[in-house]
Amino acid sequence: xxxxxxxxxxxxxxxxxxxxxxxxxxxxxxxxxxxxxxxxxxxxxxxxxxxxxxxxxxxxxxxxxxxxxxxxxxxxxxxxxxxxxxxxxxxxxxxxxxxxxxxxxxxxxxxxxxxxxxxxxxxxxxxxxxxxxxxxxxxxxxxxxxxxxxxxxxxxxxxxxxxxxxxxxxxxxxxxxxxxxxxxxxxxxxxxxxxxxxxxxxxxxxxxxxxxxxxxxxxxxxxxxxxxxxxxxxxxxxxxxxxxxxxxxxxxxxxxxxxxxxxxxxxxxxxxxxxxxxxxxxxxxxxxxxxxxxxxxxxxxxxxxxxxxxxxxxxxxxxxxxxxxxxxxxxxxxxxxxxxxxxxxxxx
Length: 348
Description:
Elements: H1 22-36, H2 39-42, H3 52-56, E1 61-69, E2 75-76, E3 79-80, H4 81-94, E4 99-110, H5 115-132, E5 135-144, E6 152-162, E7 178-181, H6 187-195, H7 213-222, E8 228-231, H8 236-248, E9 251-255, H9 263-272, E10 285-289, H10 294-302, E11 311-317, E12 324-327, E13 333-336
Parallel strand pairs: 4-5, 9-12
Antiparallel strand pairs: 1-6, 2-3, 4-6, 7-10, 7-11, 8-10, 9-11, 12-13
């Protein structure tokens, strides 16, 4: 018997779309299953099921992560909340050295949400997942009354396989390691800030949102013993480095002149009195790499589309304090501390 394809005819989301009945089934089968389109999701079970033998072919350990996305606005130059939800979770898995495989997707929708907007976001998620080589295999949908949410919130969880011999941790930094970033920092934070219209700046700012799993595997192919990697999302590069210093019981010194920042982003920071090192990124990683492998890793990163502007921005140094220092272009030094409070709310 041929399975009937359900169609969502409503123009906006209603409370019925979260009530568990026909309206909800129409939403799920048309918008989500119809777009994500894979055999695991199409089973419409309450969970996705995997063959463990298939997973274990790539390694003996799983990486598992979850994240929620509440960015405002939900669409912005270069992406939307959907691309953010996929790439952000893929990157949280990838920086462990794992190969991302599967994602879940849970959505909280506000009553009155334009269905056309929802379709665009779901299509963006599908495109991002395909590009990253992952599959969205299970999910959930809830609807809250108008005024009790803000259009759409998304939670994505993901699992990946860590290949044998890979041991990446914030606690693994060693004296002499070089600190590498894979490109211009602060683009996402500046793009979201400008998209809100608060600054009325006539400049082109676009998110850096991208998946980093292929770049990570390229880095590992030339240096399997990379010590530490984190994606520099909320809190930016500064927060990642402070976490490295504390977890590894080391100090890190950055060279300000070597930190890659787009001129427009630098201008936004100067206007607001902010520091690009604290701006959120959604396509940037920070790596602590053994000194004798740093140039090889850097060359491999620059040859990859996600790392063309990669740079060595500092090194791990001997010190009695767990802190991050920045040597300024004027020859002085300043301490780069952990972010206090929220520099830019709802940035991801």
